[in-house]
Write a structure and sequence with these properties.
- It is a single chain.
- The strands form 2 sheets. A 4-stranded mixed sheet has the order 2-1-4-6, with no helix packed on it. Strands 3-8-7-5 form a 4-stranded mixed sheet.
- The protein has 3 helices and 8 strands.
- It is an alpha/beta fold.
- The model has no long low-confidence stretch (mean pLDDT about 90).
Length: about 150
């Protein structure tokens, strides 16, 4: 009887974790709602461990590729022009880019839970900024939102 109660408790705990996971959307657009060019909307996203992000490109020229991820986290690369879902199972700061539009500052930041890798993410952001020719203030502005 005790084993059945323990098994039931474990199942309830696991099912509550699945129920609480949320899905978020990041739109990859050529022209943003505020008139900026080549943006992720939203550019900064704060989510919980286990949440999923649905990357939706506005056209065939956009995708999302991780540039910096926490230790133990899987890198991701979404296909060009196709919707793709990524589930984030490790907490920390993830920096990602649109591969063809990095130079135009098409970049985003996702914070998953606690920013356990903030020092590494800041170093990656500083290094990555060298490859950005337009919208140079975008990445630092997103990184300032990390808490």
């Amino acid at each position: 009887m005790i084993k059945h109660k323990q098994a039931l408790a474990v199942m309830l705990l696991l099912s509550s974790a699945l129920v609480s996971a949320e899905e978020h959307t990041v739109n990859l657009v050529t022209s943003g709602s505020d008139g900026q060019l080549m943006v992720m909307e939203p550019g900064y996203l704060n989510i919980a461990v286990g949440d999923t992000v649905n990357f939706i490109p506005a056209d065939a020229t956009h995708n999302a590729q991780s540039v910096s991820v926490p230790d133990g986290a899987e890198e991701f690369l979404t296909p060009m022009g196709k919707d793709a879902k990524v589930t984030f199972s490790e907490q920390g700061v993830y920096i990602y880019k649109c591969v063809p539009h990095l130079a135009m500052g098409m970049i985003g930041v996702i914070q998953v839970g606690n920013a356990v890798n903030i020092d590494g993410a800041k170093k990656s952001a500083k290094k990555l900024k060298r490859n950005i020719a337009m919208n140079k203030d975008r990445l630092p502005a997103y990184m300032k939102q990390v808490n």
